[in-house]
UniProtKB/TrEMBL annotation:
Entry-linked InterPro entries: Acyl_CoA_acyltransferase, GNAT_dom, PseH
Keywords, sorted A to Z: Transferase
Name under which the protein is recorded: Pseudaminic acid biosynthesis N-acetyl transferase
Any GO MF annotation of the entry: acyltransferase activity, transferring groups other than amino-acyl groups
Keyword Methyltransferase: no
Claim: Transmembrane helix is one of the keywords in the record: no
Lineage: Bacteria, Pseudomonadati, Campylobacterota, Epsilonproteobacteria, Campylobacterales
Leader sequence segment: none
Native source organism of the sequence: Sulfuricurvum kujiense (strain ATCC BAA-921 / DSM 16994 / JCM 11577 / YK-1)
């Protein structure tokens, strides 16, 4: 599989609107820290703010002729970065491709030594995916009454 990473800050409005529709889809938003629907205005403002941020990178992932999902890196530091993934809600079976892309970009392009993921404890599919790629649980906390697991993968 040959994927292309399309930086949010270079996307045309049509693609940003598509990404926002995915993000606001109930199958995705329910697993986010912010479960509220995001307006197009707020989304465009957020993307514009990324142009001035070295500690955050968001990408639309393209596999040949289809867009398969979004990966992001936040709190990028010298040795670590927090990661996020969500798939195009109309596709199935692309989580592993997205995870491989996150790991390769994080360890190779960002040159970090640790990738950190936060996942709600009841998000079994995400937990299983992280575990499949050898992420290990490092902490449990609560966020808005929900249990949150921190998982890490070291290079």
């Amino acid at each position: 599989m040959q994927v292309r990473l399309l930086d949010f800050t270079t996307l045309e409005t049509q693609l940003l609107t598509m990404v926002l529709a995915w993000r606001n889809h109930s199958d995705i938003s329910r697993w986010m820290v912010n479960t509220e629907e995001i307006s197009i205005e707020n989304h465009l403002r957020f993307v514009e703010s990324l142009k001035n941020r070295a500690d955050k990178r968001y990408f639309l992932v393209q596999d040949e002729d289809r867009y398969i999902g979004v990966i992001d890196f936040t709190d990028i530091a010298q040795n670590s970065a927090e990661i996020g993934i969500y798939a195009n809600p109309e596709l199935r079976g692309v989580g592993e491709d997205l995870m491989r892309t996150v790991i390769e970009y994080g360890f190779t392009s960002l040159s970090v030594r640790t990738l950190i993921a936060s996942v709600f404890a009841d998000n079994e599919r995400a937990k299983h995916l992280y575990e499949k790629f050898d992420f290990i649980e490092t902490n449990r906390t609560h966020y808005n009454g929900r249990e949150m697991i921190t998982m890490e993968l070291k290079k």
